[in-house]
Design brief:
alpha+beta, Nucleoside Triphosphate Pyrophosphohydrolase, nine-stranded mixed β-sheet, 3 helices, 9 strands, 18% helix, 42% strand
Amino acid sequence: MFKTINELIIWLNQHDIDISMWEEGNAKSVIHLWDEIASGETTLLDDPPQRIVHVVQVVIRRERQVLLEAEQIMENGSRRFRNQPPSEKLKPEESYLEAAVRCLREELGVAGEAIHLLPESYSPRTELLDSYSYPGLLTEYTFHMVEADVHGLPEEPFWRENDAVLMGDPVKRHLWVWRDDRSFIGT
């Protein structure tokens, strides 16, 4: 769709999407959107202007609790509050199961042998929302939710450094907490 980042910026401007506040606070930059498009994690529709994203969410339970990402600290030092299970955008040609394993490895540092996915728990849902990462850009999220048994996770809240920050991901650290599963909207 776009050959350069400048073409993307022109497209955003033509569709009256104000990017002046992007890269402030919790918002990501145009460069991050460009990277998502280039990697195939995001596509854009022209009429109406809309971002399309497929996300896997992995629900990990422990008795009556679920593991949630409570907070992110961004490269610029800002904090982003989440209350979401481990989540990752699907790459092109990647199944939700492959993305779930990649998510747990990248987000939690879990080895493959510690992961047992429960495909029978799979449930998809689609939502149309104003993007938290790119304010003003309407986004259609397809969430692919799957439960997993994961061994070796800490019992207490824990921080996890984001190794992908070196590859352009603006999230520097993640705080993971166990919360009552009734506080999780996915249940």
